[in-house]
Design goal:
Protein-Tyrosine Phosphatase, Chain A; 25 strands; 8-stranded mixed β-sheet; single chain; alpha/beta; 6-stranded mixed β-sheet; 3 domains; 507 residues; UDP-N-acetylmuramoyl-L-alanine:D-glutamate ligase; Udp-n-acetylmuramoylalanyl-d-glutamate--2,6- Diaminopimelate Ligase, Chain: A, domain 1
Length: 507
């Protein structure tokens, strides 16, 4: 795979002294947080990390061509003696400078784009893809930035950075500049609460920012729901967006809408209720699995075909419509793009052929998302294969299991990405929540062991017409456990195991 730095445009020399008062007059052409990603002419920014300080790699950065090092006082002590060849610039909080520096070095690329940001717990990816599909149908060249990676005109861009929803400020600004350089008109991007808290989008003004919802997630990082909300809401404050689209079905969305109204921010609302500016009126399921949807807008009713499964994707589509409308895009041109919009790993169908259960793969990794994914499945016996990631919010494991037991007749608990934790211990927490809920629902709950074994078990127990949902990993093609990553793709694994099971039956 091509290295991420290939997404950087050609740099224009900028004096470091002009960017940081008191810094030496050294010309820099780029910015890097990773010593391995440094290109000749870069400013290397050495930040403290969870396990070590970036200043420990300053010598490697200089060897790769860094012209200067920006760090904090602790980093100076680590890097000073090792890097006599380049100046070391010390500030109290280098991260606080990153966004501004990146914007200046890459020449304000966001100002040359129509930039749309979507934040919230769930729905960011699907809304981003629907928005991009609508913009493309209306004739715009569109880039996307988010969980599944980076695209331009629907094609994946060469990068190894697919695990971070919103890139760090240097990578983000370089990517925006790259998209400008390659003719993009607009960019639809996911803006995570982590990114906002860590100031990755500092210096960026979004044409329109949208809020989808706020559920239980990321509390390993934010510690509590209130700081999670405050981080998310910061996208709409201090001039970071020119207009806001907010889902008021969500309690935090209603709270945010009141705040924005009081602040005089240009605001439109979405929801299922008639009090929302944009709301669905009618939805009809079609024979091919798509839906025909009618939505009320301030300018009148619009009809469109939606290719994505589930009521929650109707909500995501309404948010995308509101963004398009506020942006002044012709909806008659844009909405046909929703018919074939496709999001890898989001209610992704896996075709097993005739006389087989129907299977979907979905990224659901919160209690709310698990419930929504299962509710989106067509009528029939539902089977959930569910895991929960390690080294993340432990308190959501039981509720995720409970959501599965309320939405499925059979719950097969398995591993997601255990990371450094004991997989059996994670499964035990999910199983406890599922079994408690099953006392009321009557769902069958089993420990399926590792993920391949669990998928095999679910397929072996499924009958034609059953609905099997593989939840948690979505588009991911690797599984993280015990300090290593093994190849694992849910969709491919289903196909392989189904063929094995059919072969065993035929034999």
């Amino acid at each position: 795979m091509t290295k991420p730095e290939t997404l950087r445009p050609a740099g224009v020399p900028t004096s470091l002294a002009a960017l940081l008062p008191g810094a030496p007059d050294v010309a820099v052409t780029g910015l890097s947080l990773s010593s391995a990603g440094v290109r000749p002419g870069d400013l290397y920014v050495a930040l403290p990390g969870a396990s070590t300080h970036g200043a420990r790699f300053a010598l490697d950065a200089v060897a790769a061509g860094a012209m200067a090092v920006l760090t904090d006082p602790a980093g100076r002590d680590l890097a000073g003696a090792a890097t006599p060849a380049v100046p070391i610039v010390v500030v109290a909080d280098p991260r606080a400078e990153l966004g501004r520096l990146a914007v200046e070095i890459y020449r304000h690329p966001a100002e040359r784009l129509n930039l749309y940001g979507i934040t919230g717990t769930t729905g960011k990816t699907s809304t981003t893809f629907l928005l991009a599909a609508g913009l493309a149908a209306a004739g715009q060249r569109v880039g996307t930035i988010g969980t599944i990676g980076f695209t331009l005109d629907g094609a994946q861009l060469p990068t190894a950075r697919t695990t971070v929803t919103t890139p760090e400020a240097p990578d983000l600004q370089a990517l925006l500049a790259y998209l400008v350089e390659h003719g993009a008109d607009a960019v639809a991007m996911e803006v995570s609460s982590h990114a906002l808290a860590l100031r990755r989008v500092d210096g960026v003004v979004f044409n329109i920012a949208a809020f989808t919802n706020l559920g239980r997630d990321h509390l390993d990082f934010h510690r509590d729901q209130e700081p999670y909300f405050q981080a998310t809401a910061s996208l709409f404050r201090d001039g970071r967006c020119r207009a806001a689209v907010v889902n008021i079905d969500d309690e935090y969305g209603r709270r945010l809408a009141v705040e924005l109204t009081d602040a005089g921010t240009r605001l439109v609302t979405t929801g299922f209720g008639v009090d929302a500016d944009y709301h669905p009126i009618e939805r009809t399921e079609l024979a091919d699995g798509r839906s025909q949807v009618r939505v009320a807008t301030p300018g009148g009713e619009v009809d469109f075909t939606l290719g994505l499964l589930g009521e929650f994707n109707v909500r995501n589509a309404v948010t995308a419509i509101a963004i398009l409308d506020v942006a002044g895009v012709d909806l008659a041109q844009a909405l046909p793009g929703f018919a074939d919009a496709y999001v890898p790993g989001r209610m992704q169908r896996v075709d097993l052929g005739a006389d087989a259960p129907s299977v979907v793969v979905d990224f659901a990794h919160t209690p709310e998302a698990v419930a929504a994914a299962l509710a989106a499945l067509p009528e029939g016996r539902r089977i959930a294969v569910l895991g929960c990631g390690g080294d993340r919010d432990q308190a959501k494991r039981g509720p995720m299991g409970a959501a599965a037991a309320r939405g499925a007749a059979l719950v097969v608990v398995t591993d997601d990405n255990p990371r450094s934790e004991d997989p059996a211990a994670i499964r035990a927490a999910v199983l406890a929540g599922a079994r408690e809920a099953a006392l009321e629902t009557g769902a069958e709950v089993v420990d399926g062991g590792d993920r391949a074994d669990a998928i095999r078990l679910a397929l072996s127990l499924a009958r034609p017409g059953d609905r099997v949902a593989l939840l948690g990993k979505g588009h991911e093609t690797g599984q993280q456990l015990a300090g290593r990553t093994i190849e694992f793709d849910d969709a491919r694994t289903v196909l392989r195991l189904w063929e094995e099971l059919r072969g065993a039956v035929d034999a």
